[in-house]
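Reading is simple: each integer encodes one residue's backbone shape. An example follows:

___
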Amino acid sequence: MDIARHRALIVVALFLGCTNKVLEQRVEGMEAQLRQLLQSTQAQRRRLESIENRVLLLQDEIETLKLSRHTIRQEVVPIPETLPTVKISPPEAKPTNPQQVLSDGETEGEDDKEVPERLTFREELYQEIDDEGNIVQPKKAPMPKREAMKQKQKGEDAILAEYQRAYSLYEQGRLVEAREAFREFVKKYPKHSYADNALYWAAECYYDEKDYETARKEFIRVTKEYPDGNKAPDAMVKIALCERALGRISDAMKVLNTVLLTYPGTEAARVAERLLQELR
């Protein structure tokens, strides 16, 4: 009886041992699958952030093209629907009388002084006459409006070229050079319509270098110095991402909720809503 009981206990122990081993193998397998899922989720999150950054880059390119198109359109001179008609008539015969008839009805005698060649109205506007009625050095005519527009356009093109050069450096991954170029742009043109964009991408360079604290400060500058700029909503989202990367989840959620309240219906609000779902 004791032998049978002993054998039964041995069988039960072997069974339990096998079962525990199977369970351990299953647990290990599930843990491995969980690690793979976490790695896959992190990779997908990185890809998603990369896609979102690329979307922001494309939006920035579109805005640059719109600005260039707008300035070029200002330079274009509209062509009239109907062209003016030019009538050609034979030249009038010169008078043979020594006394020539003047335009104001007066006559000129032989002893009269020689009348200077009559100027056009446009020329008369820019002539100076001394006390004796003699023409002196003409004034310099102001620059025509179209020429002034061309000069202004050249200046704007040069400014945009600086911005695009900095942007090109960023796309090439030359973050230090790009950051300095963007900061120089903001310093030189703080009132330009692309100053907030330049400051935003300077902050983005810090973010890509994983210097989240400095990036956070620079993104805050965008929202404070250019609160009405087109990059303010995106900067708010990036502030939240910096907070998350620094482990301050509650602060990140507060910023994201602010984005939803301040910029409803925007792309930044859509991203903020998705990030909030991940953080909850």
Remarks:
- The two ends are 62 Å apart (CA to CA).
